Amino acid sequence: MPLKRTKSELKVQREHLRRYQRFLPTLQLKKQQLQAEVRRVEHERAELAAEHDKARRELQSWVALFAEAPPMSDWLRVKRLDVGQQHIAGVDVPVINSFELEETVPNRLDEPVWIDEGLAALRKEIDFKLNLLVLQKQEDMLNDELRTTSQRVNLFEKVKIPECKENIRVIRIALGDEQVAGVARSKLAKRKGEEAEAAEEVA
Fold first, then answer.
1. Using CA of residue 145, residue 42, residue 125, residue 57, what is the dihedral sign?
2. Contacts 24+ apart (CB under 8 A), 51-60
3. Do residues 131 and 96 lie in contact, with contact meaning Cβ atoms separated by under 8 Å?
4. Domains present along the chain, CATH in parentheses
5. pLDDT tens per residue across span 66-100
6. For the chain, what percentages of helix, strand and coil (3-state, to nearest 5) are there?
7. How far apart are CA 145 and CA 34, in angstroms?
C-alpha cells in the first residue's frame, strides 16, 4: 500500500517509531538473558554428561557380569515422575522435582551376590538419563526462544525502525513541499487580486 503523505500518517509513523524504540531495549535485554541461560544449561549438561561418562567407565569392570546378568532393566522402572516448570528468561522449561523407581526382583536369594550393587548402578544410570533428557529439553526450548527473540530484535533494528524513520522523512518533505506550494499559491492569488483591484480602479 502506498505511503500516505499526510499529517495524520506522519503521526501514525511517529507513534510506530516510538513503540518500536520503546520495545527494542526490552527485547535486547531478553536476548542477552536467553544467551546467558543457554550457555548455563549447555555447561550444566556438559558437566553432567562428563560425570555420566566417568560413571560408565567405572562400570566397565561390570561388563562381563552384566553379560550373564538376569534382566535387571525389567526389575527397575520409573514408577512416578514429577516434572514441574521453571520460569527462565520468559520461558517455562521442565524441571524434575522428584522421581520414584519401582523395584521388582523376583527372589534375591536366587540371584548373584552382586545384584544389589548392579541395581544401584542401574538406578544411577536412570538418574543420569532422566536429568540429561530434561537439560536437553531446556536447552532446545531456550534456543527456540532465543531464535525467535533474535529475529524480532533484527526486525525492529534493521527493518521496522529504519522504515519508520524513512517514512517520516518522506512525509515531512512532502508536507514541506506542500506548504511551500500553498504559500506560493496564496501569494499568486493575492497578486492576482491586487492586479484585478488595480485594473478596476483604472477603469
1. positive
2. 51/128, 52/128, 52/132, 55/124, 55/125, 55/128, 56/125, 59/121
3. yes
4. 7-166 (1.10.287.3240)
5. 555 555 567 778 889 899 999 988 899 999 999 88
6. 75, 15, 10
7. 8
